[in-house]
Amino acid sequence: MAYGFSGPDLDFLLSRNGSHSLGVAETLALADGTLLADLPRVRAVAGTHAAAVVETIRLRRRALTKLPERAADWLFTDEALQQASPWPVALHRARRLLGAGLGVHDLTCSIGTDLAALHQLAPDTTVLGSDLDAVRLRMAEHNTGLQVVRADARSRVSRGCVLYADPARRAAGSSRRITGLDTIPSVAELDDVHHEERVVLRLPPGIDYDGLARPGEVEIVSLDGGARESVLWPQRFAVDGIRRRATVLGSDGAHWQITDADGDGGEHTVAGAVGRYLIDPDAAVVRAHLVRHWASRHGLRLLDGHLAYVTGGVVPDGVRAFEVLETGAVNEKTIAGWIRATGVGTLEIKQRGTGIDPDQFRRRFRKALSGSTSEVATLVLARVGRGQVAYWCRAVRGPRSG
Fold it and tell me: Which among 329, 285, 288, 328 has a CA at the least distance from the CA of 310?
């Protein structure tokens, strides 16, 4: 269970003694296997606040991947860090929020990640933050140097600003589709209070945005191939009637977008026979229901009307694809023959629509997988039409332009 920070914990962490204690703890491993040995050294300098010191150092280490330039001295809670945007994603959203030329009020500022991104891009623009959680508010003040206030997102406490909220998520089973009722506050509650000036909402990438039927644009943002968030932009932010947008970001600075205004290619992208390559589009493209639009942009087509795979004779720049070497039925004898013929020792299995568990299916080929582990192949299992098809492939990547 995550540690719950108290007001006295923050008083200590922000004091000179707290700074010294954090410095001592930083020199320790503080791993699960070393905690019993490390804790006495932390208690010697931090006393009753040792747990808060240990948790802070462990959270800062975890934050290095999300907030590499800020993790060293920020304060976090476990839940707030989990929900915080990776820095490239926060900066991208901040640019759009600031594009209206107004101040921005973050109604659920938490530990201040989005406030920091907004302030970095526009230090002279009014940036307001509010939250109900007193501990997180103090952390936000420390992390950003900005003044924040305690207020409910379901109340009106500012005027003339773009309103933005990143509501907390209710605990839910992974098999259940996320709806507008699965946030705290709910989407309906926020829309009811702020009906005159709709709030820009950051929601989980798996949200049922069609079910919300909210006017404006839905933007799905991915980073390094993983879908990170759905952002619901009110009508005034929707440009040229765009309703769906996929934004693809990379830690290396890569950035491209596609929208429903780009066109789906009509008959040129409908399902057809497999081409030289199979490609699994970026998660943002899939979640935004823009697979055909992306296929059209690159001269590709769907493999099947019910799958997100596309196929064709080219690989877009920088995109991972699978060169199809053999095609056949999903038959263990056939697949084992492919493995032995190529001396493969490592087999990647991807499936779409078959219901096959890749890990369990791979175990059936332990004897066949006796080749060098440096020899790698990819087996793609897909339901095409009414049957299941196996594609024996080699992973390739399109060259990066520029």
Answer: 285
Spatial distance between the Cα atoms of 24 and 26, rounded to a whole number of angstroms: 5
Q: What is the pTM of this model?
A: 0.92
As beta bridge partners, residue 178 has: 207
3-state secondary structure of 29: coil
Q: How many CB atoms lie within 10 A of CB 74?
A: 23
| The token pair that represents 370 in the structure block | 């006796």
CB 304 within 8 A of CB 331: no
Site of tokens 């309103």: 163
Give the residue numbers spanning the domain of 28: 7-63
The answer to the question of residue 70 being in a domain is: no
* Chain length of the chain: 402
Nearest to 164 by CA among 201, 219, 120: 201
Same domain assignment for residues 138 and 209 = yes
The predicted pLDDT at position 401 comes to 61
Longest dimension (CA), the chain: 72
Dihedrals phi, psi of 205, to nearest 5 degrees: -65, -20
Both 250 and 325 in a single domain? Answer: no
Helix (H, G, I), strand (E, B) or coil at 276: coil
Shared domain check, 241 and 219: yes
| 221-232: pLDDT as tens digits | 999 999 999 999
